[in-house]
Amino acid sequence: MAMPTKFLTASLLLSLLVLHLSEADHDPVNSNLAASSPPKKIDCGSACKARCQLSSRPRLCKRACGTCCSRCSCVPPGTAGNYEACPCYASLTTHGGRRKCP
């Protein structure tokens, strides 16, 4: 008689644990906190140094890249292009409508 009771109690506890874990995955409060958290800070100096290493005007490139990096907290990989990796970086423009970020 004690064996079925223990089995029933164990299965009930296990099902409650599974139910709790599945509801935790769909918790809107936690997902909103993750979406509103500030972006991670990156080392803009080294990221821009790598981005501007082949530039014909490295000081100008690093200055513009640093401004964009500080606003967006990201720098696309490689020395040119790859703007899809960092949409914020690609969206910044000058007053003349040209891309601000190298």
UniProtKB/TrEMBL annotation:
InterPro entries named among the record's database cross-references: GASA
Signal peptide: 1-24
Keywords, alphabetical: Signal
Similarity comment: Belongs to the GASA family.
Protein name as catalogued: EXTENSIN PROLINE-RICH PROTEIN
